[in-house]
Amino acid sequence: MRAGAMNRLSVEACDSLDGLKDGFIDDPDACDFDPQTVVGQTVDCGNSTTLKISAQTASIVRAIREGPTGADAKPLWVGTGHGTPFTGVLAFANTKCDSGVTNCTGVPFPMAVDWLKNFTRRDPSYDVTKMTLTDLEENYYLSRQQLGPIIAADDPDLSPFRGLNRKLLSWHGLVDECITMRGSRLYYDRVLQVDGNASDYFRHFEAPGVNHCNAAPGAFYPLRALDALTRWVEGGIAPDVLVGYKMPNATTITADSEASRPVCRYPQVLRYTGGDAGSYGSFGCVARGAKGTGTGANGGGSRRRDEL
């Protein structure tokens, strides 16, 4: 509950960075919200319930945003962007409380628990609640060592695909609480490192306010992305933007519909340019600014051990 309140505070702090306060962070890298700055603040949790943000909550939030680390505090993988929920069916910080908001314990994501028990450890009795940071790091590398050669799909060398003269289009919701958007972004960056002209056949897009295969109320979902890929393959029209539709009104592909908004091609970000906030034409895609694109917890751009 506290983590959910913390996410609301981060959205309130960074919502208007794109020029319009609409309940979403269009460029998480530009958000410099620090959870430590709201420790001790009282928040309204609804149902006449208030809570005070604790230092422990701030530490949990920071850890999720930065991503998992090993016992030496060095990063193992990327974290989540500002605005991504901490609680929900697929989220990372769910808890179960005995009474009220006290005596709470963590409720790990079931698929992650099953993965550790049945695939990584191959031991259904393995107790994930007793894992230390050293155990986490061991499980991370054990999983990669045992299962990576079988199911990994992270090879950035797409030259065989390019040689077939085909096209690849991907998109990721910026508030995906289950599979971090930073993973897809990292892969695309690696592909470009191998082939600087990869955008000729592979383009990646990021959708603000869209979580794991769903759009938050008021967000714009790239429902017709497959149509854009079809036009690229069959008509040679490479997409510079996708069209995001406000669900559940995505019944047409009219770009100037009041229920649509651009979904920008990475690394560009969405900006409100002025005019009717309900009009597609009031938004544009611009180059990402310098703020928040460097290294560290806020930008999420620090070199990860997985890249070495």
Automatic annotation (TrEMBL):
EC nos: 3.1.1.-
SUPFAM superfamilies: alpha/beta-Hydrolases
A molecular function GO annotation: metal ion binding
Keyword Iron: no
Keywords, ordered alphabetically: Calcium, Disulfide bond, Hydrolase, Metal-binding, Serine esterase, Signal
Domain of life per record: Eukaryota
InterPro entries linked: AB_hydrolase_fold, Tannase/feruloyl_esterase
One Pfam match: Tannase
UniProt keyword Nucleus present: no
PANTHER family referenced in this protein's UniProt entry, alphabetically: CARBOXYLIC ESTER HYDROLASE, FERULOYL ESTERASE B-RELATED
Family of the protein in this entry: Belongs to the tannase family.
Protein name: Carboxylic ester hydrolase
Species this protein is from: Diplogelasinospora grovesii
Phylogenetic placement of the source organism: Eukaryota, Fungi, Dikarya, Ascomycota, Pezizomycotina
